[in-house]
Specification:
Blueprint: H1 2-22, H2 31-36, E1 38-44, E2 52-58, H3 81-89, H4 110-118, E3 130-131, E4 138-140, E5 148-152, E6 158-162, E7 165-167, E8 170-174, E9 179-186, E10 190-191, E11 199-203, H5 210-217, H6 242-267
Parallel strand pairs: 3-10
Antiparallel strand pairs: 1-2, 4-5, 5-8, 6-7, 6-9, 9-11
Length: 268
């Protein structure tokens, strides 16, 4: 019986070993596997002169598992500078070029882009172009007595555009009810990465509480009551004034005097 158990255990172990060799490794299950596989791709830029930069990344960067995965950088292939310019004019982003890698990715734009990758990802200086990070455009909201504004910063090797026209660095006012969109663009052999903010938009809306604020801060002058000559105003407790008491005393004296005269006349 023991021999039968040993034979069964050995058979199970052998089958498990064969399965582990026969089954393909799934990239993503083991981070060590991801790091062993490197993939060279053409990563898109927003430069017409250099529409792509050649980079080598881990398999985990092209397997479609993360939000910033290169397989999500979809769009047509910029096969030449002229094509890149046409795409930029139509405000269309071109896509990355990723070769197919068994067990990792089926590729992206490979049919139309493999020649671009073989050519060093095109561009002047191709793989040697440098990434730049544009400084952010800032906005100031309008107030009750001033228009809003936006400030174009200065970033080396970056130009800022509004409606396709380059705008010099500085601060500009904006009319209420308008929306301003500013886009940053790298120059020549530089590029802005996909994960970097390159567009800023702001709607300038006039404040609606200016009248309410004015009303809330305006006070009515207190009413001034003339004080009787020779009298004293009532205190906080609201008691009668001295002038009122004197009047009551005067009336009482007159009544008493009248009664006295009547009694005297009656008795004489």
């Amino acid at each position: 019986m023991k021999n039968i158990k040993y034979i069964i255990s050995a058979t199970v172990a052998s089958v498990a070993l064969m399965l582990s060799v026969a089954l393909p490794k799934v990239v993503g299950d083991d981070p060590l596997i991801d790091n062993e596989i490197k993939v060279t791709i053409c990563h898109r830029t927003n430069s017409v002169k250099n529409p792509y930069v050649k980079i080598t990344v881990d398999a985990s960067a092209v397997d479609g598992q993360s939000n910033n995965d290169h397989s999500h950088h979809i769009g047509p292939v910029a096969t030449s500078e002229a094509v890149a310019q046409a795409l930029k004019d139509s405000k269309t982003k071109w896509g990355d070029i990723i070769p197919p890698v068994p067990g990792v990715t089926t590729g992206l734009n490979w049919d139309s882009g493999q020649e671009v990758l073989k050519n060093g990802c095109l561009g002047l200086g191709g793989e040697n172009i440098v990434e730049v990070v544009p400084a952010a455009v800032t906005f100031t909201a309008p107030t009750c007595d001033a228009l809003g504004s936006y400030t174009i910063p200065t970033t080396e090797n970056v130009q800022y555009l509004i409606n396709g026209k380059v705008v010099a660095a500085g601060t500009y006012t904006a009319q209420n009810g308008t929306t301003v969109t500013v886009t940053a663009e790298a120059t020549q052999e530089f590029y802005i990465g996909d994960e970097t903010t390159d567009t800023w938009t702001n709607a300038f809306t006039a404040p609606t509480n200016c009248g309410e604020v004015l009303g809330a801060t305006t006070t009515t002058p207190p009413q001034v009551t003339a004080k009787p000559v020779g009298g004293v105003s009532a205190g906080a407790g609201g008691g009668s004034s001295t002038s009122t008491a004197a009047m009551v005393g005067l009336v009482g004296s007159i009544v008493t005097l009248g009664l006295g005269l009547s009694v005297r006349k009656w008795t004489t």
